[in-house]
Design goal:
113 residues; 71% helix; globular
């Protein structure tokens, strides 16, 4: 499931150039990455469990992409790698718990419009 979530989220990264040097994210950028990861994985999990329709999942993934574009520096490859690391360090249950606790704050802290 996590692989599918990441594939859906990072399909936009397919056009990224050659691998870049690893970037370390801190502070608000690290928080934005965690929020993006939380929204994306939760969207895919809810859709897979048929708790939300596909169009709602797509909206949540779109929000995630905009959050990354507007609040996280670096190339698409660097952002993709950072999301992979975050995804691999957190369980799906922990990520969904983060969503329940922090989704509203994430959207306030990292607006997309």
């Amino acid at each position: 499931m996590r692989a599918l979530a990441f594939a859906l989220l990072c399909g936009w990264a397919a056009f990224a150039g050659p691998a870049q040097a690893q970037k370390i994210y801190e502070g608000s950028e690290a928080a934005a990455l965690r929020c993006a990861n939380t929204l994306a994985l939760t969207a895919v999990a809810l859709a897979r469990a048929e708790l939300i329709p596909q169009n709602e999942k797509e909206v949540m993934l779109g929000i995630t992409i905009l959050m990354l574009e507007r609040h996280v520096s670096g190339t698409r490859s660097q952002k993709k790698r950072a999301l992979e690391l975050m995804r691999d360090r957190r369980s799906v249950d922990d990520t969904i718990a983060d969503y329940r606790r922090n989704a509203t704050q994430c959207l306030r802290q990292f607006p997309i419009n």
